Amino acid sequence: MKTRLGWPMATLAILTFSIGQSTATAGQALTSTDAPTTATPMSALAAPPCGQAPTSPVPTFFTDEAGQPPVAAPDSTNHYTLTAHMGTHSFISGWPAVPTLGYSTANAKVDYLGPTIVTKKGTPINVTIKNNLPAAGNLMFPFGGMPTTNTTVLHRHGGLQAAKDDGTPEQNVAPGGSRTNYYPNNQAAAPLWYHDHADAVTSYNVYAGLAGFMPNTDALESLYRLPKGDFAKAYVLQDKSFNADKTLCYTRAPDIVDLRAAVAVV
Question: Hey, what domains does the chain have and what are their CATH numbers?
Fold first, then answer.
């Protein structure tokens, strides 16, 4: 799928994911209440089976064309619904589709990452986050230490919004629940993005796919004669490590401050 984006404010937008910060064709390899947690204590975990270059399979680079996430359509006037759910995604041709997380909207089902929501200065919107992740107690991924709360939070990164709509870690949405955030969009054009921000699981959820673009536009952009149309693209740059069966591997241990995975993914 190729989707042409009409917003020119960034010819190259970059998301980088790391511990604590936390499209059918996007993600190709270079080509609410709190539920109880059942996290495995770090002291009980065995040595991570993968996560660094010597142990992760490496694909043949530049095999696939870098994809573009679809552009979301509102489901009512100035309102969008993002549904967080499990899915499957193949990171490169010839590799199997493996479990991932994604956001879907009324017009786009996306199993990895999420659709682009384009906003405009002076036009407020409401975005409802719906949690369709498995019920609490079910482990979504065999990532060491990953809690099984399966909560989610919608945070617009770089946006100017009230604290109650900011998507802070304690604003958890439990599986089956929903929450609506109000974005006034009273700021200048900027390459904003959204991502999960749930307490204790942000890094896991974002690594598995819960992130997307939410660029804000304004009336001044056209004055700068920036690239547009086919020359304005949205690229997500990530690093990933994989198990032998090509499923995602995520290493999180007390002595690892930042994840530096083996494979660059666009």
Answer: 1-266 (2.60.40.420)
